[in-house]
Write a structure and sequence with these properties.
The chain is of the alpha/beta class and about 325 residues long. It has a single domain, classed as TIM Barrel, CATH 3.20.20.70. The chain is built from 13 helices and eight strands. It has an eight-stranded parallel beta sheet with strand order 1-8-7-6-5-4-3-2. Helix 2 crosses helix 3, helix 4 packs parallel to helix 6 and helix 8 packs parallel to helix 9. The longest helix is centred in the middle third of the chain and has 15 residues. The radius of gyration is 19 Å and the shape is globular. The N and C termini lie far apart (about 60 Å). The N terminus is likely disordered.
Length: about 325
């Protein structure tokens, strides 16, 4: 029996992508140097000016667990909120959700792993306990202006358990929706996904979640991040997380490296004629400023090499 190829998508391929910038949260959470609040605010405001309609600005986790984001409430209080931009906060539990609601986050991003082992390592509790907590967060957010998104971490593989059954991932998606959660993120937490796997799972997820409410979160741990974006897009996906400079990584996932790089993703889209609504030159400029801000180099490539349209003078003849 022949194996189905990825060349025949099950739905029309979108001619644009929505990029959600996650560097202020996912990028900064594991940095050993504390990024000053004023610098976080300046970066978030600059990202908004570059055209982002969605920015994951911070996380309301325990300051003891993630001291790099201990200023979450102050960050949301000091940013200049751009009309049309949704400012997202990750929350791990009801206490974090209550703090995020008080800080007027536009959207709360809840997270749990489909892998029981990773959820215990990352969230300190069972999957069932996480879902019980989600139900309480849904009630707390009811009647507020905040929308809710929930992430399925390790959706494409767990560093402790290995591959996760697609049926288990999709069952968790359906439980999220049954709770009243509007949006869903499928996260490749440790960069274990491959394009064929991504295409198959995204196709099935889009039968349950509209493209405008499904986000893909890829890490470039094994160099397949942008290939996975194209596979997901071929299946009909529209929204993708990315981090400026390729920052980030899960502190509870061995071997995890950064997210797919925002400016690399946007450059690829621009070269392919896929709209993003983002100012690529501004993103490159911001990325080039990251090493001075965080104290080390970043993995993004376009900020180093320049855009393909930036040509060079030929070398002089000897």
């Amino acid at each position: 029996m022949s194996t189905p190829t990825m060349s025949a998508p099950t739905m029309s391929v979108p001619d644009r992508l929505i990029v959600q910038e996650v560097a202020p949260r996912d990028g900064f959470q594991i940095e050993p140097r504390f990024i000053e609040t004023a610098d976080k605010v300046a970066l978030i405001d600059a990202l908004a000016r570059a055209g982002f309609t969605r920015i994951e600005a911070t996380s309301f986790v325990s300051p003891k667990a993630v001291p790099a984001l201990r200023d979450a409430a102050e960050v949301l209080a000091r940013i200049t909120r751009r009309p049309g931009t949704v400012y997202v906060a990750l929350v791990p539990n009801l206490k974090g959700a209550e703090r995020a609601l008080a800080a007027e986050a536009d959207e709360l991003n809840l997270v749990m792993s489909v892998s029981e082992t990773h959820n215990r390592a990352n969230m300190g509790q069972t999957c069932d306990a996480s879902l019980d907590g989600f139900a309480r967060i849904v009630e707390a957010a009811r009647g507020t202006r905040a929308s809710l998104n929930a992430t399925v971490a390790t959706a494409f593989g767990c560093p402790f358990e290995g591959a996760q059954a697609p049926e288990r991932v999709l069952a968790l998606v359906e439980r999220y929706l049954a709770l009243g959660i509007e949006g869903v993120t499928l996260a490749d937490t440790t960069g274990m996904a491959n394009p064929r796997q991504v295409h198959a799972l995204v196709t099935r997820a889009l039968a349950r979640v509209p493209a405008g409410r499904l986000t893909l979160h890829f890490h470039n741990t094994r160099g397949l991040g942008l290939a996975n974006v194209l596979a997901a897009r071929d299946a009909g996906a529209l929204r993708f997380d990315a981090a400026l400079g390729g920052l980030g990584g899960c502190p509870f996932a061995p071997g995890a490296t950064g997210n797919i790089c925002t400016e690399d993703l946007v450059n690829m889209c621009h070269e392919m004629g896929i709209g993003t609504g983002l100012d690529l030159d501004a993103l490159i400029g911001l990325s080039r400023g990251l090493p001075a801000l965080i104290g080390h180099d970043v993995p993004g490539q376009v900020a180093k090499a320049g855009r393909p349209c930036q040509l060079h003078a030929p070398p002089r003849a000897a």
